[in-house]
C-alpha cells in the first residue's frame, strides 16, 4: 500500500505515513473477476489513479469516471460544476496547463475578431462545453500521465512520481486569478476614465482640425465639417485616399463609380459631381485623451437610390483620417 499524498510505501496495518504525516486511506483493488471495471484495460489500477487524483477527490472522480471505463461506452459527456463556473481556471488548478493556456489564447484571439456583443455568449458557450466534457478530458489526461510515468524507466519510485505529477496546484490557480482580476481592473479603470472625460466635455468636445480647435456643439454637419473641411459636401474629392495599397483603392473606387454610373446613366468620367452626400453622426466613442475615434454613417443619395456606409474618423499620427468600411474591406485615408 502507498501513501496517496506523497507516494511513499506504507507497511501493512499503519494508518499514518511516516514520510509526510498524512492519514492513509486505502483504495481497494478488486479483482477483475468480482468487478472488471476497477482496473483499467490498459493496466492502470485504482490505486494509481487515486495517487494521481489525490486523497480527497478520488471517490468523487471514480464515481464520475466509472461510465467511461465500461466496455462499449463511447460517450464523452458528463457534468462538472467546477468547470462550468471556473472554466480555464479549473483546468489550470488540475494541472492541465496545455488545455488551459490553449483555450485562453484561442478565446482572446476570437474575441478580438468578433463584435463586442458576441463576447458574453462565447464565454458562456465555452463554459458549457467544459462542464460537459471536462470529466472525460481529465480522465484521459490522468491516464496519459500515469502511463507515461510507468513507461519511463528513469523513475525508481513511480508511485511517488504519480502523486507529485497529479493532484492540484494552488499556486498556479492564485497566479491565474491575479492575472484575471488585473485584466478586469484595467478594463474597468479605462472605462471610468473614458466616461469621466466624456462627462467633462459633454457636447462641447473639441478636436484638433486643420491646425485649429473647433467646438462641436451638436452631432450635425458642423461636426464632420470640422474634420473634413468646408468643401467636402457634394464632391468626391475628399474620398481619394492615401493608402500604401493603391490597387485596393483603385478597385474600391472603380466599384463605387460603376454603381453610381449605373444609377445615374452617366459615364464614369463625369459622375464625380452627379450626386450629393448626406451625413448623420450615429455615436461618438472617446478612446482616450490623446486619440479619439468617431463612428458615423454615410448616406449616399444617387437620384432615387440610396446607399449606406459605415465610417470611422480616427486620429493617427496627429492627423485625422477617414476609415471607409464598405465592400467588406477597410481603407484608411487622410481627410
TrEMBL record:
Keyword line: Membrane, Transmembrane, Transmembrane helix
TM region(s), chain numbering: 96-114, 170-192
Domain of life: Bacteria
Protein known as: DUF2628 domain-containing protein
Source organism (scientific name): Clostridium manihotivorum
Amino acid at each position: 500500500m502507498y501513501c496517496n499524498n506523497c507516494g511513499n510505501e506504507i507497511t501493512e496495518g499503519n494508518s499514518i505515513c511516516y514520510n509526510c504525516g498524512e492519514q492513509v486511506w486505502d483504495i481497494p483493488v478488486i479483482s477483475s473477476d468480482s468487478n472488471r471495471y476497477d482496473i483499467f484495460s490498459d493496466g492502470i489500477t485504482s490505486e494509481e489513479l487515486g495517487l494521481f487524483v489525490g486523497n480527497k477527490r478520488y471517490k468523487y472522480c471514480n464515481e464520475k469516471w466509472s461510465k467511461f471505463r465500461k466496455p462499449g461506452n463511447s460517450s464523452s459527456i458528463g457534468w462538472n460544476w467546477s468547470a462550468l463556473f471556473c472554466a480555464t481556471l479549473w483546468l489550470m488548478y488540475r494541472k492541465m496547463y496545455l488545455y488551459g493556456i490553449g483555450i485562453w489564447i484561442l478565446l482572446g484571439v476570437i474575441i478580438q475578431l468578433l463584435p463586442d456583443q458576441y463576447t458574453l455568449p462565447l464565454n458562456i458557450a465555452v463554459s458549457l462545453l467544459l462542464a460537459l466534457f471536462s470529466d472525460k478530458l481529465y480522465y484521459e489526461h490522468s491516464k496519459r500521465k500515469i502511463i507515461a510515468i510507468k513507461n519511463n524507466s528513469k523513475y525508481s519510485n513511480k508511485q511517488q512520481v504519480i502523486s507529485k505529477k497529479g493532484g492540484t496546484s494552488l499556486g498556479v490557480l492564485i497566479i491565474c486569478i491575479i492575472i484575471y482580476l488585473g485584466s478586469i481592473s484595467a478594463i474597468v479603470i479605462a472605462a471610468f476614465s473614458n466616461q469621466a472625460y466624456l462627462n467633462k466635455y459633454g457636447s462641447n468636445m473639441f478636436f484638433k482640425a486643420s491646425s485649429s480647435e473647433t467646438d462641436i456643439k451638436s452631432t450635425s454637419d458642423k461636426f464632420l465639417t470640422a474634420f473634413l473641411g468646408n468643401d467636402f459636401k457634394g464632391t468626391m474629392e475628399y474620398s481619394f485616399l492615401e493608402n500604401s495599397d493603391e490597387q485596393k483603392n483603385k478597385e474600391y473606387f472603380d466599384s463605387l463609380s460603376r454603381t453610381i454610373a449605373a444609377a445615374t446613366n452617366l459615364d464614369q468620367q463625369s459622375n464625380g459631381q452627379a450626386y450629393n452626400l448626406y451625413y448623420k453622426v450615429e455615436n461618438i466613442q472617446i478612446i482616450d485623451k490623446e486619440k479619439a475615434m468617431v463612428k458615423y454613417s454615410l448616406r449616399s443619395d444617387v437620384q432615387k437610390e440610396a446607399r449606406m456606409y459605415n465610417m470611422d474618423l480616427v486620429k493617427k499620427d496627429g492627423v485625422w483620417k477617414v476609415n471607409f468600411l464598405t465592400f467588406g474591406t477597410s481603407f484608411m485615408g487622410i481627410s
